[in-house]
Amino acid sequence: MTHASDPGIAFDEELGAWIVDGHEEFLAVSRSTAFNIPKLTLPPELLVNVGKVDIDPVQEQSDYVLLYSVGADHRRRRRFLAGHFTRQAVDGRRESIRKTVRELLTEGQRAGRIDLTADITRPLLTRIMSDVVGIPPALRGEFDEWAHAVTNAGQLGVQGSPAEALHRAAESVNAITQLVRDLLGSPVDLPRGSILSYAAGRSSDAASLSVEELAANVRSIYSSGIETTEYLVASTAYMIFSSPSALRDLRAYPSRIEAVVRETLRFACPAVEIPVRRANRDVRIFNSLIREGDWVRLVALKAERDSRRFSCPDEFDHRRTDQSMPLTYGLGPHRCLGQHLATAIAEEVGRTLADPEYGAHMDTPFPGFRRRAALPVIWGPEWIHLALA
Ligand code: HEM
Asked: Which of 11, 166, 215, 355 supports an S-S bond with 177, CB 3.0-4.6 Å?
């Protein structure tokens, strides 16, 4: 058995994995080429109950998504999709994000109170993500249900009937592939500037993606964009309204929202852990020898609170001078494709909520933080209820 002498990395016998929770160690593992992100298969005890369900479509589709792609396939797919997520491309969407937030908040003002996630963030993210991937407005409801059904397959160990959840996921995967095929066949309906309209214009190009690749990535980008960003937005609002100095600063200088979101990413780190890694060869990280085949869990939340890296790490301080790049989006070849978009959405929502025009403040009862049932590596406030003037 290998043992560690570094403070930020240790083998946990019970979990059977290396736990990396130091900042330096997190960076070292993320940057090393000795680790892959393996596709996690369902535990055998769950498969006993789902034996009669044809889950091939779900498994096949996950081979195409960026996160589980490797080498040249990963680079080709990522190159094709990346142009939609650069800082510049994201800045081009800010005005429409702001406009939508204001429209939704004006509706909320009539009731005097909003549930941030249900009334603002969900409708906003559904619109933005549909526009980004290319789902025409009339088909958004149906597409959203299918995408959810696939994500909910991750809930298997938590609740409900695994067979039923998998059956719905498999049907939804087929429905999404057919929808993408149909949309590429009649591109006039596609939202301009979306991934699908870009793909339709390049269908004869050798570097273009196949229908199956597009369907898998459109679905996974849509869901990744919604499920995680929802928590970043809620955490940002929580930090703004529970930190008097942040709210005061934002009201005086709205551009400080960048520092507030950056500190929220560190302090409330929406992805507690980033996807599990497996060593593809023996490798030494500082003093720890990690053997080929060992599992490695990267705990971003703890690494972001490493007292060797940050002064007063357990304090939220948007004026801190020892900030560094966020770990919650991961690093290296699989770093989050949508990080600029997620950050921009949190900034635009946070800036607008702090606008004195809305007189917003957090309503009781105050929320605790919880992990998401279907995706327990994600966490954030259970709810954000805001009273509006
Ligand atoms: C706060 C919000 C978000 C968080 C915390 C988050 C977190 C992550 C993490 C931890 C990874 C894996 C990185 C790694 O293992 O090295 C990842 C990958 C990814 N994320 Fe995000 N994400 C967020 C928002 C988004 C959004 C808005 C989109 C799409 C618009 C998106 C799309 C993706 C994609 C496609 C990948 C796979 C990239 C690849 O494998 O090349 N994410 N994200």
From this structure: 215
